[in-house]
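RECORD TYPE: protein structure
NAME: Peptidase S12 Pab87-related C-terminal
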Amino acid sequence: MTSFTERPPFDADFDTLVAQILEDWKVPGLSICVVHGSHTYSKAYGFAELPDKLMTTDASFQVGSLTKPLTAASMSMVINDSKESDSPITWDTPLSSIIPDDFVLADDYATQHTTIEDALSLRSGLPDHLWKYILGPRDGTVKDHVRSLRHMPITAPLRTKFQYSSHMYVAVTHALQERTGESLASIMKRRIWDPLGMNKTYFSVSEAEADSANREKIVKGYTWIPGQDLPSVCACGQYYLASPPNFEAMTGAGAMVSNVLDYSHWIRELIERNGPLKDHDSLTKPRIVHFNSGDTSLPGPYHGYALGWVVENYRGETVYTHSGGMPGFASLVFFVPERHFGFVMMGNSGTAAHASMPLAVHLLDRLLGPSEDSHHQQKMKAYFEQLAGERNMRMSPKPDVSVLKPFILPMLPDPPLPHVLPLEKYQGTYCHPADAYFTLVVVDGVLVAQMSHSSVETEIVLTHASGEFFLGKLTAPVLGDLPPLPMEFYVDNSGTVRKVGLVVEASMGGDCIWFTRKE
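PREDICTED:
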């Protein structure tokens, strides 16, 4: 093992690796902080704002899902507080017993039996349903969001499958706030941020902007658009400046704004457990195992998930990690408690967490020393090849929608059939009971779904495939170059368009989320 006190982590080799990775993954800037024993090291690379504002270690980022572990910790504190009360709660307390009118799922059993622990360990059976965040209103409350869950399909029985779902963290936030009568933001600040000296951590971008001493520290987020010449791309190249998403209900799922120096205090507390987290060891106990390797997973046959933490094994060491993402931003945190070691990386691109993985492996290997295990070396070689393939896919221009049609909808006839009605007959507002909707209009002979209410500034441009099948392309560069969405219209016997289905949730196996046309 190499001591970082003898050779600090940010040496010439590391600097060279960072420079290469920022270029390869098109990340404008990265801020990093490493905790090892009693020492803290930090360094910033690249730019906080293009073309020339340098990144700093006290720069503020939207950290997305790096909020989740603090939400789980806040709930753990509320559970401990309740032990001597007349109505104590535990990890096994059903959410429906705390917020019975609001927490209702599509399945009665899941409604009655989904516990706080189930929700925080992402084993409720409710998948991500990202469409809700794009097609739902940006000004909906936490309560509104939780009440919409009853209309979202469940795709696995309770406690049988790990399925990432930020909706469950919103539900826990609502339960926590109803139980205490205090906002989650206030609880985090009073119980975690202030005791740890996290003085430049906030619960929204607007709150961070309101602090005049911090306003200039807020980083700009970017998305790289490969191989396109868009008028909205900033002059420095093919980077698109991301507007901060405005989604009021995000709260405990991803609302925090912080910097690596502040977040390092949280990492140190996770390691030492002598402050706010004393007697809260259950937070890092794995609750469910899954076998799907995500983009920011270490290579391994399986992965655990605790309460806001991914649990990995790397070279015999138990490692805890989580990534966070918001449009134009991504972050990554690791800690190895047995080695009194951890680090956090924050970047201003949606690919920054992927870009940080080689740096994470580099730091872990520096900590553990060289490996002579040929199996491990072979496994890591395959891992880096897979990561390079992911990078090449993300950094390469996507084919035109017309080229992708036979691959996305292979069952359609060739030549394609015409749509049965003039495009004007498809116009209208289409609604889903989960408070999600869009309005279809014809623009220059093409159907376009407009969503002025969305938390993300975007539209969906429809390309006809065959008959009543279309492919919808999200226009917002900040969302990345996402593949087109299959869409299917239902026309009744009277020749009236009644609804449209979107294939937007992978765990539904190609089934549609249906939006009914408003009369």
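COMMENT: The first strand starts at residue 29 and ends at 36.
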